[in-house]
Amino acid sequence: MTTKQACGEQTCQQVVDRYFLEHRAKLIDIAAFLDRVDRAGGAIVDKPDYRIAALFEALNVLSDGRPNSAARVLTIFSDMTAGLPQSAEGVKRAEGAAKAEEVV
Predict the structure, then answer these.
(1) Using H for helix, E for strand and C for coil, what is the string for 29-63?
(2) End-to-end alpha-carbon separation of the chain, Å?
(3) Is residue 14 located within the same domain as residue 31?
(4) Can you give the residue range of the structural domain that contains 65?
(5) At what angle do helices 50-63 and 69-76 cross, to 10 degrees?
């Protein structure tokens, strides 16, 4: 038994075997979402909504092969404005990504 297995950690193959189908389905969901946006007349490539742009930026992070992809994706979808909101009055929902002009 290796040290990894003795400590309860999984091998790369065990992680892939256990979680691949779940995450494959999530990627198919993203592809279906982008197809729906495209069919609805959304300009995905030319002038995307800031949330779609953030999604594509996150997908690039996932494919660049560099470490800490979860933290880097989280940063993309984080609101980095300096000030705290004074009130939540009138706020009906979260946007899920910061607009480019809102980032400090």
Answers:
(1) HHHHHHHHHHHCCCCCCCCCCHHHHHHHHHHHHHH
(2) 50
(3) yes
(4) 43-83+94-104
(5) 170
The answer to whether residue 29 sits within a structural domain is yes
Q: Is residue 2 assigned to a domain?
A: no
- Whether residues 38 and 62 share a domain: the answer is no
| pLDDT higher than 70, residue 101 | no
Using pLDDT thresholds of 50, 70 and 90, give the confidence band for residue 75. Answer: very high
Angle at 48 between CA 47 and CA 49, to 5 degrees: 125
Three-state DSSP at 84 gives coil
Is residue 104 in some structural domain? Answer: yes
Instruction: Confirm if 104 and 82 have CB atoms less than 8 A apart.
Output: yes
